[in-house]
């Protein structure tokens, strides 16, 4: 039977790079390796894939194949069981990734493992988020056992080296594959990868070396944070294993709404009701700000929906001395109930001012967008 083109076998173009070839081989090996595929033709297909990859992954053989075809690489599929094993280490690396085992003599030790991260939600008032605050929180996490000091062994005793793995925390299992003998490295089933055995467990932590504790900690919330802001406290998470570093603690901030203020980025919005006389003649009124009450000048002829900017009265920028502004949105209040004198004055005013049809003006949201620079 005529041999198929090696590029066709791997499903790549003739200009495929080394990484393209290896990626194609990995995918096909996962599909057709006899250890994972029971189809009758799986072994033959895998042999074909293996031969194609071995030729095309070798620069000299690939050049010969590109020039002379199969005749230029005769003997590429020779060797025991139909496999050439000169490049065994390369295939061992690939199959170590696919099936979870390494080549001869290769082991993967259980090194230090980083601890898990923790998350804690912190509630803030509107003004606390604006100016920053120091909060005291309760952190619940695992810490070294106070009785055994983290060894897991009863005081006066100590852990012993695991006899099954010799303290390595892993054992090797040899298996035969089409590529030869492969060594699978697995966690020691006796000591669960710790390399130590505890014959007399601590009565407090029951041999784990850790106990759950809750402790109080003061944390500083910087000025200018917003709802949903996350703050990372390095090393305040769960402890690591095998002398690994601890995880981190993330504070997730939840800012409560304010009675008067709304926030837009670093600006604070305030709705202010004024009467007809104040809007017409102009006035000076006291308005609330996050810094306390402040005097605001309302220009004569101010229209409903106009926005007056109070510079520097907004939210501080993080790690900066600059602040946003307070934007005061003017609302006009129309009296619903008038006494006789007030009614007479309004009737005179209405008669004198009359009425007229005015061209369409920009709406409130358009004016607000202009003020905000949007």
Task: List strands and helices in order, with pairings.
Elements: H1 6-10, H2 18-32, H3 42-56, H4 59-68, H5 88-99, E1 118-124, H6 126-131, E2 133-144, E3 160-161, E4 170-177, E5 180-187, E6 196-197, E7 210-221, E8 230-233, E9 249-255, E10 261-264, E11 267-275, H7 276-281, E12 283-287, E13 294-298, E14 307-310, E15 326-333, H8 340-353, H9 364-371
Parallel strand pairs: 1-9, 11-15
Antiparallel strand pairs: 2-7, 3-6, 4-5, 8-9, 10-11, 12-13, 14-15
Helix pairs in contact: 2-3
Identify the notable features of this structure and list them briefly.
9 helices; 15 strands; 3-stranded mixed β-sheet; 4-stranded mixed β-sheet; 374 residues; alpha+beta
Give a structural overview.
The chain is α+β, with helices and mostly antiparallel strands and about 375 residues long. It is built from 9 helices and 15 strands. α2 (about 20-30) runs antiparallel to α3 (about 40-55).
Number of helical segments with 4 or more residues: 9
Major sheet summary line: 4 strands, mixed
Q: Order of helices and strands, N to C? A: HHHHHEHEEEEEEEEEEHEEEEHH
Q: Estimate the strand proportion.
A: 25-35%
- Helix fraction? 10-25%
Shape: elongated
Number of strands: 15
Calculate the mean pLDDT score and round it.
Answer: 82
Quaternary state of this entry equals single chain
The structure class reads: alpha+beta
Q: In terms of per-residue confidence, which ranges show pLDDT below 50 for 5 or more consecutive residues?
A: 78-89, 101-109
How large is the radius of gyration? 38 Å
Strand order of the largest sheet: 10-11-15-14
The N- to C-terminal Cα distance equals 72 Å
């Amino acid at each position: 039977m005529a041999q198929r083109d090696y590029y066709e076998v791997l499903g790549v173009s003739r200009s495929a790079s080394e990484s393209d070839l290896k990626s194609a081989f990995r995918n096909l090996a996962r599909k057709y390796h006899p250890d994972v595929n029971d189809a009758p033709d799986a072994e033959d297909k895998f042999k074909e894939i293996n031969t194609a990859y071995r030729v095309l992954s070798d620069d000299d053989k690939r050049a010969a194949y590109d020039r002379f075809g199969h005749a230029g690489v005769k003997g590429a599929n020779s060797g025991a069981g139909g496999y050439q094993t000169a490049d065994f280490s390369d295939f061992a690396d690939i199959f170590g990734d696919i099936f979870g085992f390494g080549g001869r003599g290769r082991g993967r030790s259980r090194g230090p493992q980083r601890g898990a991260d923790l998350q804690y939600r912190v509630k803030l008032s509107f003004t606390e988020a604006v100016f920053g605050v120091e909060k005291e929180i309760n952190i619940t996490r695992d810490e070294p056992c106070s009785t055994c000091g983290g060894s897991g062994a009863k005081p006066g005793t100590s852990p012993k080296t695991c006899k099954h793995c010799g303290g390595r925390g892993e054992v090797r299992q040899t298996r035969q594959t089409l590529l030869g003998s492969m060594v699978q490295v697995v966690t020691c089933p006796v000591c669960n990868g710790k390399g130590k055995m505890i014959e007399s467990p601590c009565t407090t932590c029951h041999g784990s070396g850790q106990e759950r504790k809750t402790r109080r900690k003061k944390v500083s919330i910087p000025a200018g944070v917003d709802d949903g802001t996350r703050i990372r406290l390095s090393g305040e998470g769960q402890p690591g294993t095998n002398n690994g570093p601890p995880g981190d603690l993330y504070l997730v901030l939840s800012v409560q709404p304010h009675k008067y203020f709304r926030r837009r980025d670093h600006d604070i919005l305030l709705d202010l009701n004024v009467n007809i006389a104040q809007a017409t003649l102009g006035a000076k009124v006291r308005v609330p700000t996050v810094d306390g009450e402040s005097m605001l000048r309302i220009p004569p002829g101010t229209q409903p929906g106009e926005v007056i900017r109070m510079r520097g009265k907004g939210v501080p920028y993080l790690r900066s001395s600059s602040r946003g502004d307070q934007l005061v949105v003017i609302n006009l209040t129309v009296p619903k109930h008038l006494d006789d004198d007030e009614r007479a004055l309004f009737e005179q005013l209405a008669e004198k001012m009359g009425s007229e049809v005015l061209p369409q003006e920009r709406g409130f949201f358009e004016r607000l967008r202009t003020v905000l620079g949007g």
